[in-house]
């Protein structure tokens, strides 16, 4: 309890902390599902810090949601008020660099700067020594004169070296790190829990490199808050643990919003290489005066031509003209044989052997990369050139050696360059099984806690992420049940084939309109995609204008637009409705507390786009877990219902909140299970949530909401007419 920053934990919070503490002491993994109000963050963080203090470990808590990052910082600051801990918030170099250079450039600048500073310090020491020897020789010490002569020779050599180094690229910010007293920075850093923005600003004012100082100060701290990629990317993880001064077994990892780990791990394991990279590599090889360049060209040009030919052959009439600025997949997988791109590559390749030529390309690329590094260090180039040959050769080698392995799926995708209007492609090795990434991580670290409001069913999470016999616990909403209602509204199922049906649209619009009118405040409405959100926003505006007595403001969240300003406008309103996508940023990690929103509607079942890539994931799960229906359940149905459950959790955020949560689609209802069969998703919800779902006809929803909100005296004045 020394790390618990408030008076008393909730009853379930105390139980969760006790169970998590016991599991972490035993080095076990924990799957922890808790609805809003269960205090998941502190339930995980408090016992993790206690075990880390007892066993000299470091706690790393990580998320991919910005809102949660801010919550972690707030909780860590509260803990430091009660029990001194050293905590840092760590972000990638790209968001903290003062001169905006890439990783390779930064590394070269650091090495050059340190070399210059070391040489200057050596020069100062030699100058001081030669002055001492001069004094001694003037006092009659004959040996001092000989020693001074040797020192002067060294000094001349150092000065020549400094003359050479003056032309090299250096970082003035990092130079100040090395030459100035930075104790003040570290004193300031650990007075509180500092955000990356605060560190950047503090360092910028003093012309220091805050990122490098943070790396120096991170060793041996009690708590680190960071992003997923610091743990899921194996290369970054190895460096990160080295900066911490910890072996993996000395780290307790806590993953927040852990239902996202599956997709994040898959993304980190996926490799891509674009047509532009191959073109640059071939240009690079054309300028290389090396006999191996011809061998490298044999392999890379054949793969480049095969890539172009593969996607060009896939276009039907008019399809090329319809390609937009987003990447679009081109199916290339085949049953029982290699994919179309590999077959085209093998057919086009001419040379002494693909592996031999790729090996030559790799070795030449490594040498060219070393030359680029040296040129940047010496100041011959203003930026650090990346070797395209090395990147292209490494990718083709991986494509040929790994592309057909279990769980890996070959993909070609195309896009249109907005500037040139040119269509170009990329090849991708898509990883279907995230446990190939996460399984190794969970084995390496001391223990993990994976927490989320939507982790169930636990056996699926265990299989997908490669967890061995984790401790599991789940806590539902702890707030008064009388303060909420959760309805499964039997509007027509919004199958993709029925969404354009005018009768279906009219039924859904009328039901949404009724719910908005009966809500004594704002209504959040989530749809399967942005297109449907836009469709119903327009219909609601039209309906509202035609019924002046029920006029409401309709807000529409559109893809690619910043949402915080829209959210602030919405919560400042009263009686408004916000239409957005279940796949957007407002569906999870964002709170609508108190009067921000009182009703949340989920319209339809948000199945993802079931393309060939999704089919590949299903097939990989079927093969990995020995079940013909396993792939659909693991890869589609469960993640879809998790999306729905996340959206429902945007309201009812405290014991005092009163609200309605409604699912508008017959597939959610208990009654429809016998009619819809496999299309019903009711049984995919956890048992306690299914028990809370009340089936209701769309025509009765307005009366149920009117009675519920009326019983809680939520209407300011007269209640609306049903």
Automatic annotation (TrEMBL):
Enumerate the InterPro entries for this protein.
Answer: ATP-dep_Helicase_C, DinG/Rad3-like, Helic_SF1/SF2_ATP-bd_DinG/Rad3, Helicase-like_DEXD_c2, Helicase_ATP-bd, P-loop_NTPase, RAD3-like_helicase_DEAD, XPD_DNA_FeS
Q: Which residues form a coiled coil?
A: 109-168
User: What are the protein's GO molecular function terms?
Assistant: 4 iron, 4 sulfur cluster binding; ATP binding; DNA binding; DNA helicase activity; hydrolase activity, acting on acid anhydrides, in phosphorus-containing anhydrides; metal ion binding
Q: Name one Pfam family in it.
A: Helicase_C_2
State the UniProt keywords alphabetically: 4Fe-4S, ATP-binding, Coiled coil, DNA damage, DNA repair, DNA-binding, Helicase, Hydrolase, Iron, Iron-sulfur, Isomerase, Metal-binding, Nucleotide-binding
For the biological process aspect of GO, one term held by this record is:
DNA repair
Question: Any idea where the Helicase ATP-binding domain is?
Answer: 1-303
Protein name from the UniProt record: DEAD/DEAH box helicase
Q: Which organism is it from?
A: Natrialba magadii (strain ATCC 43099 / DSM 3394 / CCM 3739 / CIP 104546 / IAM 13178 / JCM 8861 / NBRC 102185 / NCIMB 2190 / MS3)
Q: What is the lineage of its organism?
A: Archaea, Methanobacteriati, Methanobacteriota, Stenosarchaea group, Halobacteria
């Amino acid at each position: 309890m020394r790390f618990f920053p408030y008076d008393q934990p909730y009853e379930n919070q105390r139980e969760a902390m006790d169970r998590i503490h016991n599991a972490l002491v035993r080095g076990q993994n924990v799957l922890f599902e808790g609805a809003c109000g269960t205090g998941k963050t502190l339930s995980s963080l408090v016992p993790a810090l206690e075990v880390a203090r007892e066993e000299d470990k470091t706690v790393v808590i990580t998320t991919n949601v910005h809102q949660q990052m801010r919550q972690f910082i707030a909780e860590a600051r509260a803990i430091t008020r009660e029990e001194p801990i050293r905590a840092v918030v760590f972000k990638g170099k790209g968001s903290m660099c003062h001169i905006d250079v890439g990783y390779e450039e930064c590394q070269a600048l650091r090495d050059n700067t340190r070399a210059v500073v070391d040489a200057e310090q050596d020069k100062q020491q030699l100058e001081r020594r030669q002055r001492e020897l001069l004094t001694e020789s003037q006092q009659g010490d004959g040996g001092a004169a000989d020693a001074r002569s040797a020192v002067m020779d060294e000094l001349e050599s150092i000065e020549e070296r400094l003359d050479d180094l003056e032309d090299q690229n250096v970082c003035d910010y990092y130079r100040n790190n090395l030459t100035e007293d930075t104790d003040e920075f570290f004193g300031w850093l650990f007075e509180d829990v500092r955000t990356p923005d605060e560190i950047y600003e503090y360092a910028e004012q003093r012309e220091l490199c805050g990122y490098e100082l943070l790396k120096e100060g991170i060793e041996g701290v009690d708590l680190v808050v960071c992003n997923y990629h610091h743990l899921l990317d194996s290369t970054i993880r190895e460096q990160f643990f080295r900066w911490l001064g910890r072996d993996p077994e000395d780290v307790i990892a806590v993953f927040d919003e852990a239902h996202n780990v599956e997709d994040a791990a898959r993304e980190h394991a996926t490799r891509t290489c674009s047509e532009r990279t191959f073109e640059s590599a071939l240009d690079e090889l054309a300028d290389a005066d090396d006999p191996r360049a011809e061998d490298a060209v044999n392999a890379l040009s054949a793969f480049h031509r095969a890539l172009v030919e593969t996607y060009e052959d896939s276009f039907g009439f008019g399809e090329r003209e319809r390609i937009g600025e987003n990447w679009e997949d081109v199916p290339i997988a085949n049953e029982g044989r290699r994919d179309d791109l590999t077959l085209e590559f093998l057919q086009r390749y001419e040379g002494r052997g693909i592996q031999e030529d790729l090996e030559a390309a790799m070795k030449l690329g490594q040498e060219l990369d070393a030359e680029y590094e040296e040129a940047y260090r010496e100041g011959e180039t203003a930026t650090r050139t990346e070797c395209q040959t090395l990147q292209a050769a490494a990718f083709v080698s991986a494509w040929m050696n790994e592309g057909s392995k279990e769980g890996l799926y070959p993909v070609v995708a195309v896009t249109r360059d907005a500037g040139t209007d040119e269509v170009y492609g990329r090849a991708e090795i898509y990883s279907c099984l995230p446990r190939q990434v996460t399984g190794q991580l969970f084995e390496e670290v001391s223990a993990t806690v994976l927490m989320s409001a939507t982790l169930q069913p636990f056996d699926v999470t265990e299989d997908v992420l490669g967890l061995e016999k984790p401790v599991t616990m789940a806590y539902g909403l702890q707030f008064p049940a009388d303060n909420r209602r959760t309805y499964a509204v039997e509007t027509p199922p919004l199958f993709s084939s029925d969404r354009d049906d005018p009768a279906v649209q009219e039924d859904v619009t009328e039901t949404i309109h009724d719910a908005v009118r009966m809500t004594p405040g704002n209504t959040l409405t989530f749809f399967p995609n942005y297109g449907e959100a836009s469709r119903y926003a327009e219909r609601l505006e039209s309906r509202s204008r035609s019924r002046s007595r029920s006029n409401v403001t309709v807000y529409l969240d559109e893809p690619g637009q910043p949402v915080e300003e829209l959210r602030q406008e919405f919560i400042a309103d009263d009686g408004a409705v916000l239409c957005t996508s279940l796949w957007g940023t407002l569906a999870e990690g964002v709170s609508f507390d108190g009067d921000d929103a009182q009703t949340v509607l989920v319209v339809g079942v948000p199945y993802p786009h079931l393309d060939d890539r999704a089919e590949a994931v299903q097939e990989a799960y079927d093969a990995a877990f020995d079940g013909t229906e396993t792939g659909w359940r693991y890869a589609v149905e469960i993640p879809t219902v998790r999306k729905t459950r996340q959206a429902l959790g945007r309201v009812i955020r405290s014991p005092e909140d009163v609200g309605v949560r409604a699912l508008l689609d017959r597939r959610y209802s208990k009654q429809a299970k016998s009619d819809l069969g496999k299309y019903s998703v009711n049984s995919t919800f956890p048992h306690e949530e299914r028990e809370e779902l009340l089936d209701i006809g769309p025509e009765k929803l307005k009366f149920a909401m009117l009675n519920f909100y009326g019983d809680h005296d939520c209407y300011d004045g007269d209640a609306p007419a049903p």
